[in-house]
Amino acid sequence: MSDGPWLVVGLGNPGPQYAGNRHNVGQMVLDELSRRTGAPFVSRGGGLLGRRPQAATADARLGTLPGGVPGPRVVLAKPSTYMNVSGGPVAALARYHDVPVERVVVVHDELDIPFADVRLKRGGGEGGHNGLRDTSKALGSKDYVRVRVGVGRPPGRQDPADFVLKDFSGPERKDLPWLVDRAADAVEAVVIEGLEAAQLRFHTRA
């Protein structure tokens, strides 16, 4: 396995008012990966991403390989821009760390997947997700890995844009730690085992 790093990005909106939104579940997963690895996030700006911080990043080793060997190098990243302009920080980090697009993993909320399900894919459309659309545009490619965290469709006639900008419901919050943990496991599986093996594990129901 090459020792070149992976870039793992959690999409969301900045600020405490958005922290519990469905749209921010990707960043919740990154917080869990930071906790697991013991790698704290620090704001990155300056010469890397412009004068103002555009992302919080953490450098870590993810998981453990056979024999107790530390897992692959990863750069965990949470853009501090709004969701619809996530691509600039993602592309800048990929260039700075020399990460090819096939080693970029984006964790995001997904309306077309039931709540608490996790699905994995490489490439494809963005399904109306503005964060993915901007990321694809900035990277110049759609061929990055997506860890799709299901939040389900809005009830009744509620606008999907309003739905994702609201916090998880009370019943959902009871299962949210389990969902975040499962999505973090999926990221680890992609990086350590490869996408196909991870898909087999996470797309197969017991």
What is the compact description of this entry?
TRNA binds at residues 18, 82, 84, 130. This protein is of the alpha/beta class and 206 residues long.
State the distance separating the first and last CA atoms.
30 Å
Q: What name goes with the CATH superfamily?
A: Peptidyl-tRNA hydrolase
Q: In the CATH hierarchy, what is the architecture at level 2? A: 3-Layer(aba) Sandwich
Poorly predicted runs of 5 or more residues: none
Instruction: Label the overall shape.
Output: globular
Largest β sheet strand count, sense and barrel closure: 7 strands, mixed
What CATH first level would be assigned? Alpha Beta
Structural class based on helices, strands and sheet pairing: alpha/beta
What is the β-strand count?
9
Strand content: 15-25%
Radius of gyration: 16 Å
Plain-language structure description:
The chain is globular. A hairpin with a 3-residue loop joins strand 4 (64-65) and strand 5 (69-70). The two termini are 30 Å apart. Helices cover 36% and strands 21% of the residues. It has a single domain, classed as Rossmann fold (3-Layer(aba) Sandwich). It is built from 7 helices and 9 strands; from the N terminus they run βαβαββββαββαβααα. The protein has a 7-stranded mixed β-sheet, with helices on both faces. A two-stranded antiparallel ribbon has the order 4-5. By secondary structure, it is α/β, with parallel strands linked by helices. The longest helix has 24 residues, at 170-193.
